[in-house]
Each structure stands twice: as C-alpha cells, then as structure tokens.
Amino acid sequence: MAKLLSFSDESRAALERGMNALADAVRVTIGPRGRNVVLEKSFGAPDIINDGDTIAKEIELEDPFENIGAKLIQQVASKTKDKAGDGTTTATVLAQAMVEEGLRNTAAGASPIELRRGMEAAVEHVVKGLAERSQAVSGDAIRQVATVSAGGDEEVGQMVKEAMDKVSVDGVITVEESKSLATELDVTEGMAFDRGYSSPYFVTDGDRQICEFDNALLLLTDRKVSAVADLVPVLEAVQQSGSPLVVLAEEVDGEALATLVVNKNRGVLQVAAVRAPSFGERRKAALADIAILTGGTVISEDRAMTLEKVTLADLGRARRITISKESTTIVAGEESRDAVTERVASIRRELDNTESEYDREKLTERIAKLAGGVAVIKVGAPTETELKNRKLRIEDALNATRAAVEEGIVAGGGSTLLQLAGTLDSVAAELQGDQRTGVEIVQRALSAPLKQIAINAGANGDIVVEQVQRSGQGFNAVSGNYEDLLQAGILDAAKVVRLGLQDAVSIASLLITTEVVVADKPEPAAPPAAGGDPMGGMGGMGGMGGMGMPGMM
C-alpha cells in the first residue's frame, strides 16, 4: 500500500489537531459534574457514555495524520485503563496539556530531546511526592474512593464497600446486567468451583436439590477411585468419628461410587463424592489450594501416597460444604487463615512473574477463591443505554478501590497534582535551558485536571486554580466550596493518579520528539455508476432494428 509522509512542524501540527479532537471529546466527562457523550452505533440505539476510555476507542478521524494523533492519545487512556482500571480522563487531560505546551516550545526552537529529559525529571519528583502524601486506606475510605470514581454516585460507593467487606480485597467481584431495574449485590461465601455431586443420590435437601454438610471431612486425591478396597479404611475411621465425608477425586465411579451411595441411603454414613475441578496440572494446583484452605493433604501418586493408608489427620475440614448438580462451595474455618495468607502470597509472586494473560487470569481466580468468596454486583436500569453507562461507572469504582488498597489514597479533585506542581520549583532550579523548560511544561500541565473539573462544574477554571493555590485547600465541585478534600471524603487512589501522570508524559514526550509521520494513503473512492438510462448502452435495440428485424410502425 502507498504511504503518505508529513515532516517537521507540519507533521506535529497534524498530530496535535487529532489529539485535540479526541481529548476535547473526552475531557467534558471529568469530575462529578462531568457531561455525557453520545456515541452513534452502526446499529441499534446510540450509547450515552461518561467513560473516557470507551469514548476514546470510538473515535476515528478522516485525515490519516490527524487520526494517528488521536490514536496516540488514545493509548494514554488505554494504558491507564489496563494498569489502573480508572483515571483515563485525567491522563488524557494531562497529556493534552503537556503536548500543547511542548509543541509551542519546539516551534519556538527548543530542543525536543532536552524538553523530554526535563519532563521526565519532573514526573520522577512528582511520583515521589505522591508516595509521600498517600495514606493507607482505612475506615470509610473505600466507599469514598468508589463514590468519587463513580461520578459521585453514593449507592455505587456503598455497594462496592459492602462487596469488599464480604469477600475481602482479594475476593472476586464481578459486574453483571440484572434482569430487574434494581442494582443488587449477590455474595457467595467461601471457595466455589464448577463441579457438582457424582450422583443425585447424595442429595440431602430434596426441595433445593443440594447436598449440604456442616463440619465435614474432605478426602482429597488426584487419583481415580473405582475400587471399594481403596476407601474401606478411611470410611471406617470416618464412621467412628461421626462426621460427614466428601470425597474429592479425579473421578469416583464403579463399585466405589456404588458403595458410597448405599452407605448414604442406609444412613450408615453422611457422604458425597465430587469430581475435582479443572484438568491436568491446574487440577493439582486446585486440589493443593483446597488442601491449604481446609488443612488437609492431597493423596497423590506424585508423593507415593496410597488411599489405603489415609488417616483422619490427612483429611481436610470444612465448616460448611454445599454441593449442587453443577457446583460446590467450601467454607473453611478460621484455623487455616495463616496458611491461606502464605499460599496467596506465593501465588501473587507467581502472578508477578508470568507474561501469559491466560495464566494471569487463572492465578487471579485462584487468589480470589482462596481469599474467601465471590460477589456479583447485578446492575439494573430502566433503559439499556443507562444500564451500560452505570455498569461502566461501577467497574471504574471497583478498579479505583483496588488501586487505593494497593498504594493508598490522596486528596482528589486534581488538588494533589496542583499542590505537587508547587514543589517542582526546586527541580527547575537545578536544571538549565530546555530541560528547565521541560519541568515547567509539566508544572503548568498539573493544573489542567482541576481546571477542567471546575469548568465542567460551571465555574471559572483559572479562578479556581488560583484560589486553590492561594488557600492550600481543594475545590469541591459538587458544593462549589473550598475545603480539605481528605476530610470531605473526596479521594483519589494514588496508583491511579501516578499511572495517569506517567502514561501522559510518556505519550507527550513521544509526540513532541516526532519529526516524521508515515500514514497509509487512503484508497481512492470507487467511481459512481454511470447515470441516465440503465439500458443506454444497448442503443442497437432501438426498434429492434439492430437485430435485423423490421421496425414497428
């Protein structure tokens, strides 16, 4: 395919136009008074969205060079979303401000490379300042962070807090569409996996079609159990203990399964059999996780262990176990908490070292199951458009709260960035020439998020920035007051702010150091079909004389 080339100031100007087109569409959504953006769809009703990343992904520009600029700034939103889960609009606003200042200086003759070095020095200083100012999440902070991230929606903030209280920070919290108009929280306590009972004869509650035991023992093995002789010793020991027993194996069938069913139906034993979750090496890992959770031992051929020699000490213990046709949920006691904490830390180290997205997903799932539960926020709304927008807000709120737990919280509303801008004077004083100018570019850009939040709230952005700088307090865009935002509960996750700033500088420094842009040359449009009589090309048919037939009078 042929290429188009653009050079020097002309190329940078085209990139800036594209960047501004996208950033101007995204920036109107920032803050609690942010506006919505309507996105036309190729089919169906349009979407009304308040999520920066979603808006950015929808924008395509006609000019190929401008479109590249839009795609570059789109990367800011996308990267921040991937790593922090929130803060995409803040990152976009910061990047736009830095590019605008940077290109103005390069047009005036500044060295792009020196500007970039100064910008990087400034960001390094601000990131350290963020770490120093951040506070650990405590008390009601999770609800406050979630509320701010959801655009001031108190109901969402409270629901996210309840979900995290129930399943812990490491637990699985998912967002689904509800079949009703209400938004609800559904929590499953304990470790759940998608394997049910091996026979319906194990059911203890006929109405609910489930098998449920309290204070049950668990026999865990990665072997297939078919011979009843393998189970006789452990069945005798369990019968004497008087506790229910659940056999969790690769598979239980044949005479072994028949024996368990007969003993259960005769009332000799409270017993059930369940297939172990997953396959292959993942099955072994899942069984090991269950063993840690319940304090049991996996009877494995890899460890030269046999079922005939199993004792009660090898069995796991569950406070409650619920088995349906398709799933099993294990709720463990408190005695395994320390072992579970160690196991979670070990899986986290494995997670940090893996590159595979699939492996990361499975490891995260294991952590969540060990941590104690699954919560589902079922989102309801009167219309499909409102439902989609609300779902995006809740996902942002969840991501922001997780980030807050990781790196702490800072005052929100753009006030922390503005306060840290004042600390860059010392960095600028140590540098000379264009590097100092690079620091000043970042310093001026740090006021952009607060300024835009104020504009979206109907205030004068410049006046608000000046007032916040002078008073040392933040601007509450909901009430219009100047106050201590930490005390007011207007909080940002430090991780979200940090990643937004770093991603913004990364893209901005690339844009201002660009000298040539290469784009695909658009394919020429197909010529329109010839006008006039569609039969015009068959003039020989006039009176059919062209076919040697006499004309009709």
Description of the structure:
The chain has 553 residues and is α/β, with parallel strands linked by helices. The chain has 3 domains: 3-135 and 409-517, Orthogonal Bundle (GROEL, domain 1); 141-182 and 377-407, GROEL, domain 2 (2-Layer Sandwich); 192-343, GroEL (3-Layer(bba) Sandwich). Helices cover 49% and strands 16% of the residues. The chain is built from 20 helices and 20 strands. It has helices spanning 8-27, 52-58, 64-84, 88-107, 112-133, 141-149, 154-167, 232-241, 254-265, 280-294, 337-352, 357-371, 384-407, 415-421, 425-429, 433-445, 448-456, 461-471, 485-488, 494-512; strands at 3-7, 37-39, 47-49, 172-177, 184-189, 191-193, 211-221, 224-225, 245-249, 251-252, 271-275, 298-299, 316-323, 328-331, 373-379, 409-411, 474-475, 482-483, 491-493, 516-520. Strands 6, 7, 9, 11, 12, 13 and 14 form a 7-stranded mixed beta sheet that branches. Strands 4-15-5 form a 3-stranded mixed beta sheet. Strands 1-20 form a two-stranded antiparallel ribbon. The model is unreliable at 534-553 (pLDDT under 50).
